[in-house]
Amino acid sequence: MILPFLPASNLFFPVGFVIAERVLYMPSMGFCILVGYGFHLLSEHWSRKMTWCCLGVLLLTHSIKTYNRNADWESEYSIFMSGLKVNQRNAKLFNNVGHALESEGRFEEALQFFHKAVSVQEDDVGAHINVGRTYNHLKMFKEAEQAYLKAKSLLPKAKPGESYQARIAPNHLNVFLNLANLISKNATRLEEADLLYRQAISMRSDYTQAYINRGDILIKLNRTKEAQEVYERALLYDSTNPDIYYNLGVVFLEQGKASQALAYLDKALEFDPEHEQALLNSAILLQELGRPELRKIARERLLKLLAKDETNERVHFNLGMLAMDDRNTDEAENWFRRAVHLKQDFRSALFNLALLLADDHRPLEAAPFLNQLVKYHPDHIKGLILLGDIYINNIKDLDAAENCYKRILQLDPINIQGLHNLCVVYVERGKLLQAQDCLSHAHELAPGEEYIGRHLQIVQTRINRLRQSPDGSREKEIAFADYDPQEFGGRAGRTLSSDSVDLLPSLGNSIVNSNSEEPSGQEGDLPKEDADVPFGYDNKKKTVLPHQQLEPQAAPLPADDDPVFLESDNTNSPQSFAATVGDSIAHDSKHHRTDGSSSGKHAPTAVHRDDGVPSVKRADVSHPPSDGSLHHAHPAQQHLHRPKTIGQDLDDPSSGMS
């Protein structure tokens, strides 16, 4: 009975495959019975002492071997390396060593073993997938794509009249997802990625992961209706998958259907109460519905997330947003400070914290946060306007204020607020002729803004008065000094004198500033963060004498408005992650911007977050279990954002442990 097994025993020559030790547990019972029976026979024919000595030697040698073997089981890496010591012709062993190294982040070493697996067995599809995935980890995308294409070329070819689905290993279909994910990083190849997902679905109609990822591509292609149909079809095969419900919620958000979106996010939470992205995004939707009872639910969901991860700056920020809705500025300040502490370049938290402090008459506390904001986000126009405001009115640093406004005009040459406030700096410096030309240029760009006309009239009046004064004064010399109109975007060689511009019709004597009151809807209104006008300094009423001074255009808050207007950070990172769909999404019926810029027009007031639109959950597995089941990535982003895509590829379990 033993002879037929000798060729496969590895005793005389290596056979090229390995057998897991667990499959030898039951056969070892027969070996133990043979040892006991042999001991009985020897004790009858030999002396009892000699028999016991032989048994002792047998037990000692096997005990030593067992002790030494335990060291091999210290880690996955050590156990698979022990297998390679006795068998160098098995691709599965090389793949498993590579997986062990990959799990430790040692990608360069893992790549060597995956390449060795390919050299041992060139038609091993899983080994080529492993090579491609490791190249992807190493940011060697061209090599990764070549490896995936090689794996794809090794798949069985369809034969006429034969089901392709029955001829291909399901795990090998992962190559389509990994390759599609890789090329989808290039926005010009989205159609190509969509074709790969459709091929995978045609080979296996219940391939849920392919449906999920294809839906994400369709959203990026602005084909939201098709994405909706794809997700609904995926539900036919997996009706309890919370990620599919979450993604459907994202699709409805893309379509502007907030109530349907919230219903699907709640459905995702029904199947997975710990679904982090559904918790976060549903909380934000509940908050923006504006009802106190819903804000309570939103707060509970955010606090639940906070209990899971106290280092998530997004959760702190949105708790601050809720506190602002409840008009609890002290609590909001605390949450915003925590968010900034966790992420120093958190655009939204920095701006909103600074604006909150400025509105609370603490501009000197706001200034460091604004400087930090423009350090990390030098294109944040609203932050630059607020910072320039503080420099003029509180720190009295006209040079710094002028730099802020000139920076705004570099970013947006027709930004009326930045241009007007730069004109004010010229007035503060006493450069009236330059201020007149600057205000004239602003009036040409925005003829409907009455406050600019009034300020221009004030400057012209002061110029005329100064012309009538005796020559030789320092004030007059500064007022009529030469200047370069291109500093504020004026035409070169265009220098206006006071008598070259007709005085505009009288528009009143009051100078509009941060502390004077204006009727609602006029230039005096200070819209919420997203609006395109400058920000105010405080809300105190103050009478400003005509012809005395000009202040940067900004006005008080209407009595029925929130004290602070919030923006949210534009996470420009896809991530940061591969699938970012769109740039922003308007919530409720209000409009908002996402870039921190201003257009010079009065926009409707709105509270917004500019973190981008919701992210679609995509299948994402870096190291799947041996049974081939798929896990989903945890969110790393915030507000109505698309979850991580397949940033890490799907392993091929068939190339893993035996």
From TrEMBL:
Its EC number is 2.4.1.109. Residues 631-644 have a biased composition (Basic residues). It comes from Anopheles melas. Residues 507-539, 553-658 are annotated as: Disordered. Keywords: Endoplasmic reticulum, Glycoprotein, Membrane, Repeat, TPR repeat, Transferase, Transmembrane, Transmembrane helix. This is Protein O-mannosyl-transferase TMTC3. TPR repeats lie at residues 91-124, 125-158, 208-241, 242-275, 313-346. It comes from the Eukaryota. Pathway: Protein modification; protein glycosylation. Gene3D superfamilies: Tetratricopeptide repeat domain (1.25.40.10). Residues 607-621 have a biased composition (Basic and acidic residues). Residues 508-519, 568-578 have a biased composition (Polar residues). GO terms for molecular function: dolichyl-phosphate-mannose-protein mannosyltransferase activity. Belongs to the TMTC family. It is a multi-pass membrane protein. The keyword Endoplasmic reticulum applies. PANTHER family: PROTEIN O-MANNOSYL-TRANSFERASE TMTC3, PTHR44395. Its main location: endoplasmic reticulum.
